[in-house]
Amino acid sequence: MVAGPLAGVRVLDFSWIGVGCITTWLLAELGAEVWKVEPVDGSDNARTMEPLVRGVGVNHLVFDRGKKSFPVDVRRPEGREAYLAVASVVDVVVEGMRPGVADRLGVGAEALRERNPALSYVTLPGYGSGGPLSATAGHDLNYAAMAGVLSMARQDRPAPAPVQVADWVAASLAALAAVSGVHQAGRTRTGLVAESSLFDGAMFALVVAQAQALMLGLDVGPRTSMLNGELACYAVYTCADGELLAVAALEERFWRRFCALTGIDDEGAQYDRSRQDRLRGVVAGVLATRPRAEWLALFADQDVCVSPVLTVAQGLQLPHVRERAGVVPMRHPDGSVVDAPAAPLRVGPPGAARPTATAVARTPALGEGARELLGLSGRSSAEIDRLHGAGVVFAP
After folding, report:
1. How many structural domains comprise the chain?
2. Which of 89, 93, 87 is nearest to 123 (CA)?
3. How far is Cα 67 from Cα 361, in angstroms, rounded to an integer?
4. Backbone dihedral region of 50: left (phi > 0), alpha (psi from -120 to 50 degrees) or beta?
5. How many Å apart are CA 252 and CA 316, to the nearest integer?
6. What is the domain extent for residue 83?
């Protein structure tokens, strides 16, 4: 077993499904011991939400691997007390409910930190805990729309972003907050309370465009900045066989080399905003004369920042991905081994192994780990049996 940098750190994930499970997945991949809080009846949507792999949700297979399971009913007094007790022996709680819900249940930051001042409490509300939108329901599409992400890619009508920008940014920031809290507690014996809202995640992804809006009075839209289609040297083009090339020869040295290899005379128009439409037409016309494979052969090892536009499945087959262990084996609940995407984290020198706890990770069965966690909080085996029999916890 390989111990990651967060070995010995205990995390309680009270997000069920959503961004919190991504946050704690990252922490687990770094070696933290993560217990996933679930309903005692096993109704957590992550286990059953489509798409399914032989009856098991893909979200559960990916984001819950390497975790343990702690099903508890915090709406019942004994369940709430059990939750408060286990929170006193963990380092981090990640919570994904709407603002105020955890407090109304009696399991919010104040109640938990009263028993465990060293605890760091990280919450992931949709629009944040303050402001006129704090109680508003939403999903990634809503946050991306409100922050301005969708307007930057607008054609006739914006389409949903191909990846969940708000979710992934907010989850990464929440993981950073959790690690910061553990570090602070190690120095001061006092954890922190942090918030990483999904709307703020979408806003953070736009920080450069926001700076342009605030400092230059420029409301960035489609093709209004060098990184969203304004420049011909940073765009996607179609080859003779209909395949696509992504040209990102943004710096002058890359562009000079690209033009030399393709025979393009740009007449000094690389950054001239008034001549981009003409230049884009020139580049499109040249790249349309050959199939993509020929262009890629020409550009190979030439430092021109040109890449093929691949599908997700094609990207996974790249030798580069396989060599860097971008795909890892994991055990399906039916006992078979399936391939799964790896977390994008490496610790150590170049080429170091990922800090995954086991070579073949797996997801927990419902309640697997509940007895261990309750035992750490001081509960006897007989008392755990009683709570299990009463349906307060599920600890088989």
Report:
1. 2
2. 93
3. 9
4. beta
5. 31
6. 10-205+323-389
CATH code of residue 239? 3.30.1540.10
pTM for this entry:
0.91
| 261 and 119 in a common domain | no
pLDDT at 368: 97
Q: Over the stretch 77-109, which tens digit does the pLDDT of each residue have?
A: 999 999 999 999 999 999 999 999 999 999 999
Same domain, 282 and 344: no
Interior/surface letters 208-220, b for 16+ CB within 10 angstroms, e for the rest? ebeebeeeeeeeb
Maximum Cα–Cα distance for the chain, whole Å?
A: 83
**Alpha-carbon distance 331 to 349, whole Å?**
28
| Structure-token match 């109704």, residue found | 43
Q: Do 167 and 260 fall within a single domain?
A: no
Same domain assignment for residues 371 and 247? no
Q: Which two tokens stand for residue 331?
A: 């055990």
Please give the DSSP secondary-structure letter assigned to residue 170: H
CATH number of residue 179's parent domain: 3.40.50.10540
126-166 tens-digit pLDDT: 999 999 999 999 999 999 999 998 888 756 566 677 789 99
